Structures are given as C-alpha cells and as structure tokens.
C-alpha cells in the first residue's frame, strides 16, 4: 500500500514510498524506475538514501528498503529474518525473480538471500561485502568493534558511539558525498544494537554453490579485508567477477558513483535486460 507521503526528494531523486508487511512489523520501501526488479540493500547505520547516487540507472525498477531495525521500518532487527524480508518485498512488487545489490552488511543479507532462495535471485552485485568466519579478518583487532559500540548505545551514549563511528575509516567519503552521508548517520537511532545477534556467517560451499552471476566490488581505499573478500567472491563463484574501484573507499557507490553506476548498468544490461 502507498504511504501517506508518496514522494520524497526532487528532480531525478523522486522515489515512490511503500510499506511492506513482514514478520513483526513493516518495512519502509522506496521505488523508482521501470523494468526488471532490482532490490538494493543498504549497510549498517544507513538507510535507503545511501542509494540516491544510483538513481541514474536506466531500465530497471529500483526498490530500496529501509532494512528491519533501520530508517523508518518498524520491523524489529533480526539479520536471520532478512532473507525472508527480501522475498516479501519482491512479492509485494509482483516479481518472482529479481536481482540484488548489497552494500556492506546489506551485501551479507544479499548473499544469505541467494543461498536461501537460489531460484529467485537472478544476479547479485556486492559492494564492500564481509565474509565473517570464511576470509580471516586482521588478528590484532576487529574491523568494527561492535561490542564496544553496543555497550555505548546500551548505556544511553548513542552520540558518543556515533562520534567514533563517523571518524571510522569505513564511513569516510569524498567531500561531495559527506553532507548527504551525515544526514543519514544523524538519523540512525541504534535500536539494532539493543538486540544480541551474530553476523551472518558463510561456508566455502555457500559461496561456491551460488549459481547466478555475481559482481563483487570494493573501493581501492577500502580495508584490505574487504578487498580480499571481493577477490574471494569473484574467484570462488562460478559466474563471479571482481572490480576494484580507484579513488573509492568502503562506500564506493557514493565516492565514485559514475564508475560504480557504469559497472552496475553494464552488469544489469548483460544479465537482466538481455532477457526482456
């Protein structure tokens, strides 16, 4: 059903607003464009607006939810349920098959959806993906000290947590994208950190069994671990490929939108649009 405020943004950034019922509540979902369905899954502490730089894509119906626990969505945080949420979103828009674009934690949700519903996912693009327990993280310290962040949030110190997070290497973007990113981070409320949950974990077989085309992207200035993950995915998926984006960090889709959009458009054209 349409939300009470059907549009947000202006010019090329207009996106229709919907609410999708899922387990425990609703997902706030934005939609723009026409064509095969592509669902965009944002990363941790973000919301659907992180995909505004991708609104230039042509020939696809972009569907951009606030994942459960984030943005305006009311469904409680639970990573283990999100693959079912993706199916609910696709069904809401009448699509049996769809493509996925996932950023960071959203990329893990995309992979979980692909292994849980392999007959539904036609193609997948993963940007800055994690692979916990499969590709070894640096031994000296975790890339994100989630336990420390959660402790701050649960002590009522969200502002302190966000002060640290906005200085973290993973949230650094080029000057053109800083204001827009800061607006998103300012709206993060930390409710996902009030729930104990482990990151989604994958096995070698999980990755090797992905049968759909997979494009793994990482920024050249992303962490070494994220770049290793991108190369691992590109090398272990049967129809996999890896692209490292020059002059981009973890949020490569923001830092180098033109380059990332070109890759996405070519990937979509070769996998989805040729079948239409």
Tell me about this structure.
The protein is an alpha/beta fold and 276 residues long. The chain has helices spanning 82-92, 105-116, 146-154, 158-165, 175-187, 204-208, 224-236, 252-255, 257-271, and strands at 2-8, 15-22, 25-32, 37-41, 61-65, 98-103, 121-127, 214-219, 240-245. Strands 1-2-3-5-4-6-7-8-9 form a nine-stranded mixed beta sheet, sandwiched between helices. The longest helix has 15 residues, at 257-271. The radius of gyration is 17 Å and the shape is globular. The protein starts with a strand and ends in a 5-residue tail after the last helix.
Task: Name some characteristics of this structure.
21% strand; single chain; 33% helix; disordered N terminus; 9 helices; Rossmann fold; globular; 276 residues; nine-stranded mixed β-sheet; alpha/beta
Structure summarized in a few sentences:
With 276 residues, the chain is of the alpha/beta class.
What is the topology?
Layout: E1 2-8, E2 15-22, E3 25-32, E4 37-41, E5 61-65, H1 82-92, E6 98-103, H2 105-116, E7 121-127, H3 146-154, H4 158-165, H5 175-187, H6 204-208, E8 214-219, H7 224-236, E9 240-245, H8 252-255, H9 257-271
Which class best fits the helix and strand makeup? alpha/beta
**Looking across the biggest beta sheet, what order are the strands in?**
1-2-3-5-4-6-7-8-9
Radius of gyration: 17 Å
Q: Low-confidence segments, ≥5 residues, pLDDT <50?
A: 1-7
- Write the element-wise H/E pattern from the N-terminal end onward: EEEEEHEHEHHHHEHEHH
Helix content: 25-40%
* CATH topology annotation: Rossmann fold
Average of the residue pLDDT scores: 93
Largest sheet: 9 strands, mixed
Any idea how many domains? 1
Figure out the total of helices. 9
The CATH homologous superfamily is termed Alpha/Beta hydrolase fold, catalytic domain
- The first-to-last residue Cα distance is 27 Å
Global geometry: globular
* Total strand segments: 9
CATH-derived architecture: 3-Layer(aba) Sandwich
What is the C-level CATH assignment?
Alpha Beta
Strand content: 15-25%
């Amino acid at each position: 059903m349409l939300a009470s405020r059907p549009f947000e943004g202006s010019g090329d950034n207009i996106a229709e607003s919907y609410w999708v019922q899922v387990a425990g509540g609703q997902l706030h979902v934005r939609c723009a464009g026409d064509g095969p369905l592509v669902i965009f899954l944002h990363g941790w502490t973000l919301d659907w607006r992180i995909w505004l730089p991708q609104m230039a894509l042509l020939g696809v119906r972009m569907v951009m939810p606030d994942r459960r626990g984030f943005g305006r969505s009311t469904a409680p945080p639970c990573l283990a349920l999100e693959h079912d949420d993706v199916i609910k979103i696709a069904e809401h828009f009448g699509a049996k098959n769809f493509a996925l674009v996932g950023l960071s934690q959203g990329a893990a949700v995309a992979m979980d959806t692909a292994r849980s519903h392999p007959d539904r996912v036609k193609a997948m693009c993963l940007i800055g993906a994690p692979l916990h327990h499969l590709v070894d993280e640096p031994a000296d310290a975790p890339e994100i000290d989630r336990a420390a962040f959660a402790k701050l949030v649960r002590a009522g110190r969200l502002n302190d947590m966000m002060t640290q997070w906005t200085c973290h290497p993973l949230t650094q973007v080029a000057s053109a994208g800083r204001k827009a990113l800061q607006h998103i981070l300012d709206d993060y409320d930390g409710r996902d950190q009030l729930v104990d949950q482990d990151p989604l974990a994958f096995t070698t077989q999980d990755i090797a069994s992905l049968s759909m085309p997979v494009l793994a992207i990482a920024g050249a200035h992303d962490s070494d671990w994220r770049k290793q993950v991108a190369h691992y995915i590109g090398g272990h998926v049967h129809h996999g490929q890896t692209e490292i984006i020059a002059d981009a960090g973890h949020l490569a889709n923001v830092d180098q939108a033109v380059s990332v959009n070109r890759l996405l458009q070519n990937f979509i054209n070769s996998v989805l649009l040729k079948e239409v």
